[in-house]
Amino acid sequence: MHNIICPNMVYGQTMMMGHGHHAVHMLVKSLMPELEAYWPSLYCTSSKRCFGGKGPIWAHEWEKHGTCSYPVIQDEYDYFATTLNLYTKYNVTRILKNAGIDALNGEKYLLSDVVSAIKKDFGATPLLVCKKGSVQELRICFYKDFKPRDCVSGLSSNATDDITKSSSSCPTYINLPTYKPLEYIPSKVCKQVELRF
Asked: Which cellular components does GO assign to this protein (predicted)?
């Protein structure tokens, strides 16, 4: 899960108040079980992998994306709690499964079927980013009140054109892959843990 909640970016306003990964960890301690289950933070072994610093991805998410959501979101706790609530409320895996699309079976699915299933449930068009025929990112966009909105602008009257424009890096048939992170933060020993789409 890579959530970006940045409602003020529409107006070009940002607020930067980075606390570093230790402070973020302390402020969201009560959310740790949910964060570890639904948004596991990977331990980074190089500056390149960690966007310029070493440490958990949660600090990066807050510093890069969370701080720009002020004043709608007041602090780190509010940012991560809101992100987890949105993840639960708009559960893409459940929606796809209900539409007969199982992200875990390795099958290829029509891009239009994936987009249509999400659009039908959310009332908004997602944006998919693919690499080598597999979905790398599935973006769901929100208004400042956290209601879904189309991730694309200037939608045509033709649904097929909308899907093509919103997901131009994706082929007609796509894979919905599972990911294996290098290591969970709580772990002292490197292990392979599957994250499921």
From this structure: extracellular region
